[in-house]
Every structure is written in structure tokens, then in C-alpha cells.
Amino acid sequence: MRGDQQEEMAAWFRSLDPVQPKDMVGLWSGVGIPSDHPLDGVLENLNWFGKRFHSDMRADALLFTWRPGRLVALEPIPRVTARTLILQCRDDIIASEEVGEFVHQQVPNSQLVVLNASGHCPNLSAPDEVISAIRRFV
Hints:
The protein is of the alpha+beta class. The chain has helices at residues 3-15, 42-45, 97-106, 122-125, 127-137; strands spanning 26-29, 48-53, 59-67, 70-74, 84-91, 110-118.
């Protein structure tokens, strides 16, 4: 996705009224947005369905179709035990800094780096900053 397209999309997201969590409860079907990234289509090829939001504020962020009528949720956070780098954009239009902080609190032995980048894909919007953070981490 070109920089001007990303800015246009970010401006549109910012113009939307906030959604209350209670209004998101239920099953949501997702769709990929082509961005010319080498990993475009990977989730779709794995039968990614979307997300499910529960009334107790839990969410199944990665929900896949296992077979017709059967969805399977992946819960990666409780299983992570390896040293982990969490990269969070300062101006992420999809996941706020609080999301990165939450993941950091849930993953033992993790390091949170807040990037001075915008958007939800810092590997596209700020690749040099991402590479620097990874090099410092390893």
C-alpha cells in the first residue's frame, strides 16, 4: 500500500465514531486488504475466518475455519514462553498503545518497543525503525 493510500485510510479510520465494546460482541467475518506485501493472502490461505468478541471482553483474534460449520480460535498469548519483541506503532489506527502494553503484560519475558510510526504495519510504514528495533533485540 502506497504511503498516500495509507494516510488516506488512516484519516478515514480517525474520522469514525468510537465503537463501544458492547456493540462488538459477536462473530465478525474478516477480509484481507491487498498491500503488495510478500505475506499478502497468508491468513486467507490458512482459512482465516475473522474474529469473535465475547461479552466478558475476551476476543478470539485469530479465528479459522477448520471444516464447514466449525471455527477454531488460536490463542497464542498464553502459550508464548520465548523471549519476545513486541513492536507497537505510536499512531496505530487499529490497535492503540494500550493494546501493545496489554500484550506486553501478558507475555512473560517480553520487551515492548513503541515505534514513532503510524499505521498498523510498521514493516511497511517504517521499515528502518523496525529493523533497528529487531537488531537491538537480537
